[in-house]
Amino acid sequence: MQPNTDTGSIPTRAAARAAQRRRRQLVLWGVIGLLVVVLVVVLSVVFTRGAAGEPEQEPAVTGECLPSALSITADPAVAGALEAVVADLAADRSDCPEVTITTEDSAVTAAALAQGTAPGFDVWVPDSSMWPARVAGQAELTGADAPELVVGDPVATTPVVFAATDATATVLGAEAGFGSLAQRAVAPVLPDPSAVAASSAALLALQTAVGGDARTFTGLVLGLDAQGVVPTTADALAAASAATSPTVAVTTEQAVLEYSGDPALVPVYPADVKPTVTVSLVTLADASDDTLDAVDALTAAIADGGDLLAEHGLRDASGAALDSAGDGASSAVTEPADGANQAEALRTWEVLTAPSRMLALNDVSGSMSQPATADMSRIDLFGQAAVRAINSMSTDSSLAIWVFSSRRIGGQDWQEVVPFGSLGDPAHKQRTIDTANSLDSLVGGGTGLYDSVLAAVKYMRETYVPGQVNLVLLNTDGFNEEDDGLDLPGLLAELEKLRDPAKPVAVIAIGYGPDTDQAALEQIAAATDGAAYQALQPTDIGAVLVDATTQRGCRPNCG
User: Fold this and answer.
1) Measuring CA to CA, which of 6, 8, 335, 481 is 20 to 30 A from 237?
2) DSSP 8-state assignment for residue 296
3) Per-residue burial over 448-478, b = 16 or more CB atoms within 10 Å of its CB, e = otherwise
4) pTM, full prediction
5) For residues 327 and 332, what is the distance between their CA atoms, to the nearest angstrom?
6) Chain center to CA of 158
7) Range from 72-81, 322-331, 364-373 carrying the lowest mean pLDDT
8) E strand or H helix that includes residue 359
9) Mean pLDDT to the nearest integer, 506-511
10) How far apart are the first and last CA of the chain?
11) Exposed, middle or buried by CB within 10 Å (0-12, 13-18, 19+), for 58?
12) String of b and e for 166-185 (b: at least 16 CB within 10 Å)?
């Protein structure tokens, strides 16, 4: 029997391999065909969108990082907006260099830097460019080794305004301005200028509004009583809201927009002088390139974050009005106050309101009874001026009154009539006023000038009180007439022995009338780093005495 040789149902090995090759070719051509179809579809979609003017879609970017880490110290008024910008800058990113923001009042940071404290930040963002100028000025006065600061361009602003109830805003009217304060049309409430930048900007504006008249400005500053100056912006806003007579708080637009008290307050924009405070990024002079690159990136982000600034009540660097500010906002200033001038206005404020320990040494020699006007003697005019000067001094000052002529107590030319006491004590203040008004009862004798001056300076040196302005205010109308005591060279030599720059006691001398030995007074003042004035006309007495009194805080550096 022959074996079955039919091959129709069982393929040969060659046939099987040929069939396998054919199957592989079919699969390959199928894949190629599918890819061609997909490619045609994609190209047609792109072509169709391009023809319709639709932009190509870029991959989504959730945020950008600063090029390096930053440690920032920011004022509370700007910290919220800054945090919002930083958060928006790197939204949904977890791989960015760390940016830390520490909140601290600008006045606190400035005080520490001015004392030479090493900065704990890469970037400082105060609420005003005044504060870096303040650091430099205070360090120069004290000789402290403060860090050198570099102030960048403004990144945000907010105008200085009057916060008022609707009723007070109506009283002020459209012409409200710093001239209104000079005219005392309303009662101003001012946050402490040494702590609040808006107040120092307002002081600078007030100086401008009165044409730079130092006497008028001094009177306005001294007219702010204990209720007119409050510690914080919040205190000022609350006072303006609660006042029963027309009262305004001097503050910023930002502070008014964020105020939520009842009754509400509205910003009244000054019509004459229009100050604004500016926010800048402040770096150290020796900052690294990495830090400066990060600061540049942050500055650009703030410039692009106008909406975020507005949400926190701040305008952008251009000063464009906020939609939420209401009527009058568009007329607010866009040019910032100069930081250095603002710091100088603050310095002037501190001079005028400085607590003093003053010994008033008053001439009651016989010549003080001579007529000065048709119905008043020299001592009468001086008494009136002295009362004004007493009222010009701050309540945290202290005052004593001595008088001098010749041999008032045995061979002694001087006499204490009111010992030192605080002008914050109503009883003591009234006693000094009563004494000034009754000096005519003490008039008599010659002018025992030199011995009395030396005794007064010695007493002030022996009882020196640190932290206060210790000085002698000398008032006289004549020449030294005490032959048995010191002559002028002897007095100047003794004053030189008593000189101690660490514990200065200045003599501020005022000569009344044409008979005064003004040359001697000038030498006495110079020997103690003080100043000498002269009132040639009776009508000058009051103005000169008040001017001399208000210079008490800056000697010997008044300029």
Assistant:
1) 335
2) H
3) bbbbbbbbbbebbeeeeeeebbbbbbbbbbb
4) 0.69
5) 10
6) 14
7) 322-331
8) strand 356-363
9) 88
10) 141
11) exposed
12) eebbeebeeebbbbbbbeeb
Q: Does residue 556 have a cis peptide bond before it, meaning omega lies within 30 degrees of 0?
A: yes
- In DSSP notation, 173-200 reads -TT-SHHHHHTTSSEEEEE-TTT-HHHH
Q: Is 135 within 8 Å of 154 (Cβ atoms)?
A: no
Q: What are phi and psi of 361, to 5 degrees?
A: -105, 105
Segment 34-82, tens digit of pLDDT: 333 433 333 343 334 444 444 443 333 335 889 999 999 999 999 999 9
Within 8 A by CB and 6+ apart from 253, the residues are: 158, 159, 160, 161, 267, 313, 315, 322, 325, 329, 332
With 80 as the cut, is the pLDDT of residue 377 above it? yes
Q: Residues 161-212: pLDDT tens digits?
A: 999 999 999 888 877 888 877 777 788 999 999 999 999 999 999 888 888 8
Q: 407 and 365 in contact (C-beta within 8 Å)?
A: no
Q: How many residues does the chain have?
A: 559
Tokens for 82?
A: 């800054």
Q: Are 257 and 325 within 8 A, CB to CB?
A: yes
User: Could you tell me the two tokens for 422?
Assistant: 């605080």
Amino acid identity for residue 486 in this structure: L
Chain-centroid distance, C-alpha 556: 23
> What whole-number distance in Å separates Cα of residue 69 and Cα of residue 96?
8
> What pLDDT, on the 0 to 100 scale, is given for residue 336?
57
Res. 33 pLDDT band, cuts 50 70 90: very low
Query: Which runs of consecutive H residues, i.e. helices, occur in 243-377?
Result: 253-257, 289-303, 306-311, 339-353
CA distance 38 to 509: 101
Nearest-angstrom CA–CA distance, 203 and 208: 9
The per-residue DSSP string of 281-295 comes to EEEETT--HHHHHHH
Which has more pLDDT, 383 or 267?
A: 267
